[in-house]
């Protein structure tokens, strides 16, 4: 059920940003999902639709992009992006690996309409 929590979190951030900028409409929300984060975009979309129903974000398009996982060896500093989670450094065979990318899900950017961006052409 953690997609519900992330959807709520993303919506809060979006609405906060929209309010700060006096948005009149929210067009697109760009979300980054790490390969390791185990978030399912369809589930996020599902909860998003449910939660955003009576907010300004209603009808906004969610765009998902995916980042591969990256592991870094604490021993030799080698960074690599395996297809599947690895436990051994391919360079020095150390087991001291750290996930340095791909374990998050976050809001990258939001496209909104603001009073300044709409109908500003001089007559
Ligand atoms: Zn290593």
Give the uncertain stretches in residue-range form.
none
Termini separation comes to: 52 Å
CATH class reads Alpha Beta
Multimerization state: single chain
| Tally of helical segments | 2
Characterization of this structure:
This protein has 123 residues and is an alpha+beta fold. It is 24% helix and 30% strand. Strands 2-1-6 form a three-stranded mixed β-sheet, covered by helices on one side. A three-stranded antiparallel β-sheet has the order 4-3-5, with no helix packed on it. Helix 2 (41-51) links the parallel strand 1 and strand 2. The radius of gyration is 19 Å and the shape is elongated.
Topology:
Blueprint: H1 2-20, E1 25-34, H2 41-51, E2 61-67, E3 70-73, E4 79-80, E5 97-101, E6 105-113
Parallel strand pairs: 1-2
Antiparallel strand pairs: 1-6, 3-4, 3-5
Helix pairs in contact: 1-2
Bound molecules: zinc ion.
